Amino acid sequence: MNHYFDPGDGEWTSREIQVVLHGRDFTLETAASTFSPEHLDTGTRILLETVPDPIGAVLDIGCGWGPIALTAALRSPESTVRGIDVNQRALELTRRNAVRVGVSNVTVGLPDEVPDDLRFDTIWSNPPIRVGKAELHAILETWIPRLNPGGEAWLVVAKSLGAESLQKWLGERWPDAEVSTAEIAKGFRVIEFVAPGV
């Protein structure tokens, strides 16, 4: 059985779903073995309802079929948005959906395709919790340090899947950062992380 955090590079067929992003109706493509292929999941919806408009260079960790990256691009057309995923199927869907939405400021790719010197002002993510705690921490330890001083990361995590312990770990791992709860709704917590300033 394939999971959304697998490479997803076998044969596949897409399907269309109706989605509202940034107050607009879109018909987008999804596929099996991507995260939440049937609809916009509750956690992502809560994240997108909570976050302020992004600024500067934006990163979506685990972009799936693209709802977070596409919303960032719609809300902030002057920003550059990069979606990363280990699943090739997800990357192709996000590319296709960027065309459907009509945004040209979205780039997608594998995590190791991001230039080492690229920094971000904003991270939005519904991170892949089910990869396990050690792997999730490794993912965040890769990308959180790439925030510019004062940059913000917004993460949504189900309370039943360890949102509180993740928030505690973030504060302990980066004690000079500001880590807080931005929202709690429908079993999810939105965590705001502000990188230390200069």
How would you describe what is shown here?
27% of the residues lie in helices and 32% in strands. The chain is α/β, with parallel strands linked by helices and 198 residues long. It is globular. The termini are far apart. The mean pLDDT is 93.
How much β-strand is present in the residues?
A: 25-35%
Task: Give the overall average pLDDT.
Answer: 93
CATH class: Alpha Beta
How do the strands of the widest beta sheet line up side by side?
A: 5-4-3-6-7-9-8
Number of helices: 5
- In angstroms, what separates the terminal alpha carbons? 46 Å
Q: Could you say what the CATH topology is called?
A: Rossmann fold
What is the structural class? Answer: alpha/beta
Rg, rounded, reads: 16 Å
Give the helices and strands as they follow along the chain: EEHEHEHEEHEHEE
Shape: globular
The total of beta strands comes to 9
Question: Residue ranges: pLDDT <50 for 5 or more in a row?
Answer: none
CATH superfamily: Vaccinia Virus protein VP39
Main sheet record: 7 strands, mixed
Q: What's the number of structural domains? A: 1
